[in-house]
Design brief:
Alpha-D-Glucose-1,6-Bisphosphate, Chain A, domain 3, 569 residues, 8-stranded antiparallel sheet
Length: 569
């Protein structure tokens, strides 16, 4: 028998709901392609938890795949904390079925004797991370697909430190899940163990966010913000946090303020995409606002637009926002006096400018694999060190360590503090960023994402990365290749001398070229979407801020040339 059909027929037993069985039988009878995509593999945990299209099957998000995850997690918690009164907190976002799926997850946990705190309404991912430690829970779960399209949902697991699961817990939990059959799931809820939470945790989270992100910037009465939640969860937190920090000139885009899993006003609820902030930017131009802030559905990513040198609103990328936020925090620490144990952090595909800044300030620099869980792990692994702040190119940032995942709530406040103070000083967010380029080097990055869906798409991605590894370039825009960093083998090779050195970072399917002039090209498959991603970074010096436009144009031309050379343009 066809293994796909055999896998599907296991879902036709009496354990599964009648409507599920009817949908699967219909796929078997009428839609071979959809049946194959629904059952050709099991959903896996990636860089940001488990995400997938909602529907029936092992490769879909549904009550059974999430129920099996939760049963495995329950078994693991019992083994890890024998005899303890286990507690887990659950949050969910605006996605279709997030509320009902989160209730299923709560029921499975309670059926296993675990006390569940479940937010009564949608809440942000950073508040979930905060709540794990605030409520002294053993784990946390958030139902979200972050910025993925409307047909997706997802499941992220957090450990006792408030960070996402990392080795060894992730592998051990996955082993528990894989050891189960679907019929092992205990769906018989113990309602007495499920407790609704909301405002008491909100209040603690808001208070801490303002404490960490507010630096008493000048000029708040004269600083105007346009904010959009892009139909997501941040509407429950960011307006209140800004208000408490003294920002009274905040215009909310009402057309996008109501949570809605269809995301009806945008093509994608991803603040990395200029189109997602188009409505907010238009409003900012109309009313003469200073800054636009937009967040993704679960409020861990933020996009920022500010006025450029020509007075026009310009969307900054994640690297640019991260650099200026980190510079601001470093200046605050420097003013107080460094203790000598501080560090900043970013990921291997983010701007090398972060390391230049760390060196200039004399603080430790740490780099991690893509995925904010690795930055959270640093805080856990080095308790004697103090985390100042850090982020990644994909529009995520974390201020301090009271949240252990990227946090668009506190980061929004920090961005406003920087911009408000800059305006009061006669400068601007954009001009302060240019000053960073004159101090630390002008680094400019570009991301290319290619979508390859389904089983054939997965094979295409695999082949592209294989070709990238086996047929390295000799030079990029006239600069000879110097290093190849292969995170699959944990080695970096000097291609000119043949010398190889180990990389002290967990293995991952990432390959990076670096040329003699510091140009870097990284390739990796997305951990959350059917995409292959290419990250390109190049740099030069910027002697004077007055040269910014011409040098910026030169770097744009170089990036275009690199894309053409790699056939990515």
């Amino acid at each position: 028998m066809n293994p796909i059909v055999a896998s599907a027929q296991k879902w036709l037993t009496d354990f599964f709901d009648a409507d599920i069985k009817a949908q699967i039988q219909n796929l078997i009878d009428t839609n071979e392609d959809e049946l194959t995509d629904s059952f050709y593999k099991d959903l896996e945990f990636g860089t940001g938890g488990m995400r997938g299209v909602m529907g029936v099957g092992t490769n879909r998000i549904n009550k059974y795949t999430l129920g099996k995850n939760t049963q495995g997690l329950s078994n693991y918690l019992k083994k890890s904390y024998p005899g303890e009164d286990l507690k887990v907190v659950i949050a969910y976002d605006c996605r279709h079925n997030s509320d009902t799926l989160s209730q299923v997850v709560a029921e499975v946990l309670s059926a296993n004797g675990i006390h569940v705190y479940r937010f009564s309404e949608l809440r942000t991912t950073p508040e979930l991370s905060f709540a794990v430690r605030h409520l002294k829970c053993h784990a946390g779960i958030v139902l979200t697909a972050s910025h993925n399209p409307p047909e997706y949902n997802g499941y992220k697991v957090y450990w006792t430190d408030g960070g996402q699961i990392v080795p060894p817990q992730d592998g051990e939990i996955i082993a528990e899940i894989n050891a189960l059959d679907f019929t092992d799931i205990n769906f018989e809820a113990n309602e007495s163990l499920i407790e609704s939470i909301d405002k008491e945790v909100d209040e603690a989270f808001f208070e801490e966010s303002v404490k960490v992100g507010n630096f008493n910037a000048a000029g708040k009465d004269d600083f105007h913000i346009v904010f959009t939640s892009i139909h997501g969860t941040s509407i429950t937190a960011i307006p209140e946090v800004l208000k408490r920090a003294g920002y009274n000139n905040v215009t909310v885009i009402e057309e996008q303020a109501t949570p809605d899993g269809n995301f009806p006003t945008v093509k994608s609820p991803n603040p990395e995409e200029p189109e997602a902030l188009a409505m907010a930017i238009a409003k900012a131009e109309e009313i003469g606002a200073d800054m636009v802030v937009g967040t993704d559905p679960d409020s861990d990513r933020l996009g920022i637009a500010v006025r450029n040198l020509d007075g026009e609103m310009e969307l900054l990328n994640g690297n640019q926002t991260m650099v200026l936020m980190t510079k601001f925090l470093l200046d605050q620490y420097k003013a107080k006096g460094f203790a000598g144990n501080e560090f900043i952090a970013t990921t291997i595909v983010s701007t090398p400018m972060m390391e230049q800044m760390a060196n200039a300030y004399g603080v430790e620099f740490k780099t991690a694999l893509t995925g904010f869980k690795w930055i959270g792990k640093m805080i856990k692994d080095f308790p004697q060190s103090e985390f100042i702040g850090g982020g990644e190119e994909s529009f995520g940032y974390m201020v301090g360590d009271f949240v252990r995942d990227k946090d668009a709530v506190t980061s929004t406040l920090l961005a406003c503090e920087i911009a408000s103070q800059a305006k009061a000083n006669g400068s601007s967010f954009y001009k302060d960023l240019i000053d960073c380029y004159t101090q630390f080097g002008f680094y400019k990055e570009k991301l290319i994402s290619l979508t390859k869906k389904g089983m054939t798409g997965a094979e295409e991605i695999k082949q592209m990365l294989k070709d990238f590894k086996e047929n390295p370039v000799e030079s990029v825009q006239g600069s000879r290749l110097l290093y190849i960093e292969d995170y699959n083998t944990s080695t970096v090779k000097n291609v000119q001398t043949g010398e190889e050195k180990p990389i002290d970072i967990p293995k991952s399917n990432v390959l990076i070229y670096e040329t003699e002039d510091g140009t870097r090209i990284a390739a990796r498959p997305s951990g959350t979407e059917p995409k292959v991603k290419f990250y390109i970074s190049t740099n030069t010096t910027l002697a004077n801020a007055s040269d910014f436009k011409s040098v910026n144009s030169q770097l744009d031309s170089k990036l275009d040339g690199i894309l053409a050379e790699l056939n990515l343009g």
